[in-house]
Amino acid sequence: MKEKKTHNETVKELFAEYKSANKKRYTDFFLSSLSRSLWNSGLYVYAAMNTFPEHNFTEPENSVNPEIYAKWTEEEKQRYRRTIPCEICSSYREDINKGKDYDTSYFVAGLNTNNIYERLYIIQHINRLDRIPDITEQDFNMFKEIMLCLKNAEPNAKIRDIHKQLKQSDFYKPLVNRIKAEQMKQGASQAANDKIKSILETLGVCGILHTEKHKSPFYEYTNLAVAPRSSHSSDWAYPVDFWRGKDSIDWDTFVYWFGNYEELKSVR
Length: 268
Prior knowledge:
The protein has 268 residues and is mainly α. It contains eleven helices and no strands.
């Protein structure tokens, strides 16, 4: 078992990996994963790093009453120090994965992550891939269909309305069938739903979907682990949770990420 990584060394490694990363590698990997069971959190992580601050672990002020802390045993104090989140990024002082190696199977469930230890694994993994899978016509068509649905959204449409529409799209059943064939026979529909949700949330972090008030982390830093939600019951990530059809698409950032793909020129 490896030694536990600390917050500070992980942030340093994360920035070293980010500075050596190639944007096109991340957009290629994102697009090539769309129509497959393969899950990809890479672009979400890479885009969020644009404004992520380089920082040391910062303990929240007044996180515990000093008089109470003084009465704790040393074991209780150590447990507290291990599990209190950083005020800036909400990750723990040490990797709670207990030093175990992450691998691709760890991310099979496919969640976009705001945990610095998981982010480091993802960016290291993609930076070291020998080859990025080819982007297929099916991948491009799926992405174009998603973008056209967003482009033509009614002014009051919420992101969950877009998600619902996309489950009626031409790519949905083939995606479910591919997940069944490649990954799981049970729960393939839910996995497809989660994947579409993650794609839309990635567009938010990339700065393609946001509002004037609720800016994307691509533009200004937001601690996504504790970012505001549009309602207590919402399970959508910031900032797409606040997006409405009237907010439209930020075409400047769309071009920044995907402007070099001839296959996507027609989307605009």
